[in-house]
Amino acid sequence: MKIMVAVKRVIDYAVKIRVKADKSGVETQNVKMSMNPFCEIALEEALRIKEAGLASEVVAVTMGPKQSIDTLRTGLAMGADRGIHVEATGDLFPLAVAKLFKALVEIEKPGLIILGKQAIDNDCNQTGQMVAGLLGWPQGTFASKVVLDKEKQEVMVDREVDGGLETLCLNLPAVITTDLRLNQPRYATLPNIMKAKSKPVKKYTPEELNVATNSDLEVVEVTEPPKRKAGVLVSSVDELIDKLKNEAHVI
Question: Which of 9, 37, 118, 225 could form a disulfide bond with 125, CB atoms 3.0-4.6 angstroms apart?
Fold first, then answer.
């Protein structure tokens, strides 16, 4: 069985985000970029499934500008067997990404697709669900545990919900999106980083996949969140209670 995993290039989680002067987006020039943390978890889970002898190949897929190849190489250094890069300029919204994934699935014929539940740059949390919808495949979102049964062609997915844990049994092929508590991603070792340079990477364009990436969505303006007001010191419990009663905002 082949597993396809999405890996997205995003601004590193430790970088302070700066909004562009014209408020058209956030500054990405000369900013450290890295793999989306949820995508790292998705890739780690795919690699563990393969190491358990339940999959034959892990294919990492990234979409975006030519610089996205760096993120793909990171995925190959972690252990993915080969990569696919759909090179596209401009912003790719979730529906366009899902359509591109559907086109790749028709070419690659994977038995399982694993994606991070969301990307930290836009927090959309939509792509995995849209991919499953377009393919007509069962889906398990926010997975905190994944158990694959190769003989039955099923996968058990534990997902965290408001009331506790929910367990889903999905027939393969299926789509899974990963939550933070699923696993702890591995670090790429130096030998694997060197090996990654020789691993195959297939390149496509949206035009070659016959997918239109234009969107009906338009970003009107991007602004920073309002600054929080400074806190105040109180001299007694009574004063604190009075402020909580009379000054605290009710959400």
Answer: 118
Amino acid at 173: P
Task: In whole angstroms, give the CA distance from residue 12 to residue 17.
Answer: 9
By DSSP bridging, strand 82-87 and strand 201-204 are parallel
Residue 100 CA to residue 229 CA, distance in Å, equals 44
Query: Which of 135-149, 190-204, 217-231 shows the lowest mean pLDDT across its residues?
Result: 217-231
Question: At residue 248, does pLDDT exceed 70?
Answer: no
Residue matched to tokens 């990307």 = 119
**Partners of 201 in the β-ladder:** 83
CATH 2.60.40.10 fits 2-226, yes or no: no
Q: Which of 85-89, 203-207, 227-231 has the lowest mean pLDDT?
A: 227-231
What is the Cα–Cα distance from 49 to 71, expressed in whole angstroms? Answer: 21
Side-chain-facing half-sphere of 216: CA atoms under 13 Å: 1
The whole-model pTM stands at 0.85
Contacts 24+ apart (CB under 8 A), 102-109: 102/131, 102/134, 102/135, 103/209, 103/210, 103/211, 104/4, 104/61, 104/204, 104/209, 105/4, 105/135, 108/2, 108/4, 108/59, 108/84, 109/2
Please write down the long-range contacts of 67-72, taking CB distance under 8 Å and 24 or more positions apart: 67/9, 67/33, 68/9, 69/201, 70/9, 70/33, 71/7, 71/8, 71/9, 71/33, 71/34, 71/35, 72/7, 72/201
What are the angstrom distances between the C-alpha of 97 and each of 136, 155, 188, 194?
16, 24, 27, 30
Residue 250 clears pLDDT 60, i.e. is over it? no
